[in-house]
Design a protein that fits this description.
alpha/beta, Rossmann fold, six-stranded parallel β-sheet, two-stranded antiparallel sheet, 8 strands, about 35% helix, metal-binding, HAD_sf, carbohydrate metabolism, hydrolase
């Protein structure tokens, strides 16, 4: 959009925005489902759900039967399965490495704000050198509140010491757009991420929509 000002900093969601984690999350779900003799889920079923984390994946896998289980126990079991194969298939989305290089060459600060728990976020990021240069990483349990609440983004803004309106937040879920808007940042929708069409993403009030990460480079030149 022509009315967008040049960003002074970027903040990114993690799953479905910087890292393609869907297959590892889906295989963790299938390991858990196998323990309960429940049907396995295919990639095309769980990929659109992956950004919704444990809650979304368990809802997909267990369906109506989910109410028959202790949710917190299932969640812990799912996260344990996932932690055991955290980086088997996970990779950077195409274009992310080039985008991060461009941001750093432009001298712009950037960070990661995710709802993923810290005990999973930190070891996962260790596998991706391009992400080691983040100025700040805020996980889902860094604060009591998580997206769509804007508290995580306010914390990142305070650390970066840049005016809210000059920070762009990029994510692939409605909660990302809502959190960015509530924090008075520029919400950018990563349409290449994990989005289910039934969520009506065309109605989300993003200031910009990108189909490839490197599209952001045109705004920092």
């Amino acid at each position: 959009m022509s009315n967008l000002h040049r960003p002074h900093a970027f903040l990114f969601d993690l799953d479905g925005t910087l890292l393609d984690t869907a297959r590892d999350m889906g295989e963790a779900l299938n390991l858990l489902l196998n323990q309960y003799d429940l049907p396995q889920r295919e990639y095309n079923e769980y990929r659109p759900i992956a950004s919704h984390g444990a809650k979304g994946m368990l809802g997909l896998g267990f369906g109506e039967q989910l109410q028959n289980f202790d949710y917190e126990t299932l969640r812990a079991d799912f996260l344990a399965c996932y932690a055991n194969q955290l980086n088997t298939h996970t990779r950077l989305f195409d274009g992310v490495a080039q985008l991060i290089d461009g941001i750093q060459q432009a001298g712009l600060p950037w960070g990661i704000v995710t709802n993923k728990p810290e005990h999973l976020t930190t070891p996962l990021l260790q596998h991706f050198p391009q992400l080691h240069h983040a100025d700040i990483v805020i996980s889902g349990d860094t604060l009591p509140q998580r997206k769509p609440h804007p508290a995580q983004l306010f914390m990142a803004q305070e650390h970066l010491a840049i005016e809210h309106g000059n920070i762009w937040y990029i994510g692939d879920a409605e909660r990302d757009i809502l959190a960015a808007s509530a924090a008075s940042m520029v919400p950018v929708l990563a349409e290449y991420g994990y989005i289910c069409p039934s969520e009506l993403p065309h109605q989300w009030k993003a200031s910009l929509r990108i189909s490839q990460p490197e599209q952001l480079l045109r705004y920092i030149g």
